[in-house]
Automatic annotation (TrEMBL):
The protein, known as: Tautomerase
Domain 4-oxalocrotonate tautomerase-like, first and last residues per copy: 2-54
Species classification: Bacteria, Pseudomonadati, Bacteroidota, Flavobacteriia, Flavobacteriales
GO molecular function, a single term: isomerase activity
Annotated EC: 5.3.2.-
Residues at the active site: P2 (proton acceptor)
Length: 65
């Protein structure tokens, strides 16, 4: 039973975009690993941009510049 966890910043990801992610990742596992879509679980977590960092900086601060 595959479990996929997708983390994205909380910047207006739409319901339709989430649906597309779930469908696309599920199909990828079917195509590449021959997994059963009925037992493939996908979770999307939206992370506040204050809690996301890169290049030693908070993304929220970088975005302001």
């Amino acid at each position: 039973m595959p479990y996929i966890n997708i983390q994205v910043t909380d910047e207006n990801v739409t319901k339709n975009q989430k649906r597309q992610l779930i469908e696309g990742v599920t199909q990828l596992l079917v195509d590449v690993l021959d997994k059963n879509p009925k037992t493939t679980h996908v979770v999307i977590q939206e992370v506040p941009i204050d809690n996301w960092g890169f290049d030693s900086k908070q993304y929220s601060e970088t975005k302001k510049q």
